[in-house]
Records
---
Amino acid sequence: MKLTRRGFFKITGAAGAAATVSRAYAAKASPAPEDPFGCLVDLTRCIGCRKCEDACNRVNDLPPPARSFEDPTVLNRPRRPDEKAFTVVNRYFPGQRDASNQLVPTFVKIQCMHCQEPACASACIVGALTKKENGAVHYDVTRCIGCRYCMVACPFEIPAYEYHDPITPRVMKCTFCFERISEAGGLPGCAEICPTEAITFGRRKTLLAVAKKRIQDNPARYLQEIYGEKEVGGTSWMYITAVPFEKLGFIDVPDKPTPRLAETIQHSLFAYLWSPIVLYGLLGGIMWASRGNRPHPEDEEGDRR
Ligand code: SF4
Ligand code: SF4
Ligand code: SF4
């Protein structure tokens, strides 16, 4: 009889297996690389063309979208990345008006932030998610046991799961185009295609300097804030904006990385062979508490006219 990962969990109750493997990984922090690659997204440059979504779909060989990448009505409702779309662009109307008194939209591309100290990697009891030297938080399907702790742990609600696949379901998220950026001169598909250079790829420290210079040189155009510089300990993807981030669906997260707390609890629990279900609930509680007041996309319709 062929045993699926899900079936394995049902039969064994998971706790024993998880406890064994967890000792090897649970206490290990994913070390933050000194100067990883990153992407700077300049929201003042994004025109909402969704070519980045299209490119991401192609370079990752994802299924065709239900509605075309050229269909502008897709922007009428906020979306989240999922197992079939590693990145999505949402449209907001935060209140600015142009010379003709028309509301001016701001477009926001979202994907995995590739955190410097990723909570998903810390929550993963088998080391299937790791922060790589080049900045990517990389997923190794051959290690994954389908526990989905990473989905609970992620403060940005990014990882998705192939629930529709009963045999070989995977956790799905932006790969940071790991293979492409591992080659000299390689660019993420989305950054390469962007017609307005709203996405700049480079070393994180360089991008921070670029962001600060743009803000300093254009104080009337930008707010004095870089989302991702400090959030959850810093992220490889960062944003600059003309509009407060809280009006654009950005999640209000603490500067302190969440992994350490999750790791401590995880390690303690497995030391006493507590059930992963208990851990799942506790991790969920930690992440929920650390998120603060976060608007759900479906609750933001009032901002989008
Ligand atoms: S390709 Fe560039 S301009 Fe177009 S939606 Fe994506 S980030 Fe914005
Ligand atoms: S955004 Fe979420 S999935 Fe991506 S690296 Fe950070 S914790 Fe992991
Ligand atoms: S970095 Fe690669 S996987 Fe991530 S959103 Fe861009 S194209 Fe998609």
---
Amino acid sequence: MDNLLLLGDEAIAQGGIDAGMSGIYAYPGTPSTEITEYVQNSHEAIQKGIHSSWSANEKTAYEAALGMSYAGKRSMVCMKHVGLNVAADAFMNSAITGVHGGMVVVVADDPGMHSSQNEQDSRFYARFAYIPALEPANQQEAYNAVHYAFDLSEQTGLPVMIRLTTRISHSRSGVIRTQNRNQNTLSPFNQSKRFILLPANARRQYNSLLEKQPGLEEISNHSSLNYLVEGDNLKMGIVAFGIAFNYVMEIRVRHQLQYPVMKIGQYPLPRTMLTKFFEKHESIMIVEEGYPVYEELLRGYFNNEKNILGRLDGTLPRTGELNPDYLAKALKIDLPPALPPSEILQPRPPMLCQGCSHRDVYEALNEAIRNDERHVFSDIGCYTLGALQPFESISTCVDMGASVTMAKGAADAGLRPAVAVIGDSTFTHSGMTGLLDAVNDQSPITVIISDNSTTGMTGGQHSSGEGKYIAICKALGVEENHIRVMNPLKVHYAENVKIFQEEFAYEGVSVIIAQRECIQTLAKKKKKAK
Ligand code: SF4
């Protein structure tokens, strides 16, 4: 079998290709994007006819994967942690319906918020939905976990979550391929009414989900992702989850510590294993990446006489990513002072690329709107950098699609002008429905769709509304003469300022589509064409 050098994301993708996956659905989001990109660029995936496409948002992606599972095939859906909020309705209900063909939900969390609005922990969602979750500690485990997750999903009839974090997703390591399984044959699920969540069925299904829980815990007690690393020093035992296991082992090996380590990579928790482990030690340190999800739970299980250390008592930092240095400090190991950063390193504050169309949008917008009136509601994309100097054009960035609906709320309150800036991809992700609300209420807002023909922030994925924005806005009820198109280039500056001013003065819903391709994707296209 091949030995490949893969990112954690790529190991997941290759795992899917080798495990008989028939389709993968996703909306791009760092740090999960490379999973789908890998499948899209894989000749093997293309030869095997594996469906791979970018969906309009995480919810539509989730539902498509669920439909494929309903048809008996193995499907995967991928997203970043905040994307799971968007897919949450389908996600929670899919735990009640269950699945037919194996369905794997890959969620990449971003502790430390390298490129996200928050650092929420997707393991909470898995517990919330009562479904199994796997948390691989390295790339090989990530690859193996996909095979295991598909089997587990078909064995239990439930979707199975694989939780990654940024360090696993974006670091590279050798991976040995172990299988090449055929895809399932088409076999739609048609025996009972379990995919119809009318109350009578839903109640029955929910009970069946609860009845599965002891079995899921028992599977965890025997999972190869959960195991003990023996040690002689029983004063303290360390419970390490997912990638945190690597940090623990690095310090343990480097400083020749003898604390036993219980490694956890599958949930629900293997309670029998943990009970035995807890009984053997005077104190326990809980090391998990993200929220203290299981520290809270374990304090509840075992807090009668145990000294439990972790993120909740300040032994480890409460927020952000962990690393071996934090572990050393928690274990009271003196480390030599860190070397200062090299003087040749130049700070590189985030900024829009030189020549980016969003720059010209903001320059004209700033001219068209007076400083004391500049309460511009923004969305999530490269253009969010319009919050920084030299533009300082925007005042908000909350979640996908929020620009339009927040502008609407502010307009309803009397704010003028109420302006939303949203990218083309974000508009089709979750801006369209907000625009419909504004049209229905005739809220006086101006929506600027900064259309650069791609999903720029995540590296240039296909944008699902390409070429359809005027038609979409018309169909949503925006008056044709208040759908304006501009070319955001310096040469059109005065004309663009005028368009902004005219539409800001209009007491109704207007849309301005600023169209110019992202220079990065344009450069890539030109390079490819040569
Ligand atoms: S990647 Fe494209 S959209 Fe993003 S800042 Fe650069 S030019 Fe602008």
